Amino acid sequence: MRVRLDRAVRRIVAEAPDGHFGMWPGHGDFVTELVPGILVFETEEGAERFLAVHAGTLVKWGDHVRVAVQAAIEGDDLARLRDRVETEFRRQDEDEREARAALARLEASMIRRFQDLEGQGP
After folding, report:
1. 53, exposed or middle or buried, with CB in 10 Å at 0-12, 13-18, 19+?
2. Coil, strand, or helix at residue 31?
3. What is the pTM (predicted TM-score) of this model?
4. Which of 31, 54, 100, 109 suits 68 as a labelling partner, its CA being 20 to 30 A distant?
């Protein structure tokens, strides 16, 4: 994972498994799981920004909020962000599918080789 966003913000709105929540300065410390969706934040200048996130975790302590996610894409236009998310996350899903298929082929090959070795016995 890498840092995708490192800046001061006025507020954050995100989604946990039990629904959406908002955070403002002075909010209490907590930790929550994030579901895939849109995290909204307001910059110190008042601009609203969007961060499409794959599943992850949000940790709030003191004045700091840390979000760890598998993937994230930032934008300021929801329509364009939606298009980017569909393209990027679809590519990631295809890459994961290909990796699982390669692993299954490797496992099948190993099983065949073990069976061949057992058949050669002493």
Report:
1. buried
2. strand
3. 0.66
4. 100
